[in-house]
Design a protein that fits this description.
This protein is an alpha+beta fold and about 180 residues long. It has helices spanning about 1-20, 45-60, 145-150, 165-170, and strands at about 25-30, 35, 40, 65-75, 95-105, 110-120, 125-130, 135.
């Protein structure tokens, strides 16, 4: 199952993170839960990441892959701590996490993550990884182009009256002078 494959890859990612102190961003296309070509990619900006995921979606379509895993390091913060118009990486109270996002052509979405605690003096080294947190059926917006290739964009449940969508709209809405 997609969950079984995701757990195996996340356990390997945890081992690499603890040993090396970092994890390169990788994409793993799947065919019937079997890994295909490993794609290592280090986007330099948020725009690069969006364009990269679109390219990955085209690759998934071209290779008839029916699953995808993405493993990377990321920043996480509570919504209230993120400055208006900014992202988690800009929050004063943010946490570094190791993250795995897995999707497939059936619309399954799995997110595994673990908070990273770094050593105080040798900040590039990992002191510990928290236990793995699992979210099944969440909304992996970052992989929307891949879900779209499979005709599964509807699993993201993009409704304007949704609380998350309202927050995004307010958070990134341009402020009108004098309002």
């Amino acid at each position: 199952s997609l969950m079984d494959v995701a757990k195996i890859y996340f356990q390997n990612a945890r081992t690499i993170m603890l040993k090396d102190g970092y994890h390169t961003s990788i994409f793993i296309p799947l065919k019937d839960n079997r890994p295909g070509e490993l794609i290592v990619a280090q986007p330099e900006s948020r725009i690069d990441k969006y364009l990269l995921v679109r390219d990955i979606a085209h690759f998934v379509k071209r290779t008839n892959s029916n699953g995808l895993i993405h493993i990377a390091e990321a920043w996480m913060a509570a919504a209230d701590d993120i400055p208006k118009g900014k992202f988690a990486e800009h929050a004063k109270e943010r946490r570094e996490i190791l993250t795995l996002a897995a999707v497939n052509s059936d619309g399954e979405q799995i997110h595994l993550s673990a908070k990273i605690t770094r050593k105080s003096l040798k900040r590039w080294k990992v002191k510990e990884l928290a236990s793995t947190e699992t979210e099944i059926g969440g909304r992996l917006f970052s992989l929307a182009p891949v879900l779209e290739v499979w005709g599964k964009l509807d699993v993201l449940d993009l409704k304007a009256d949704d609380e998350d969508m309202k927050w995004l709209d307010q958070h990134f809405k341009d402020e009108v002078p004098g309002s």
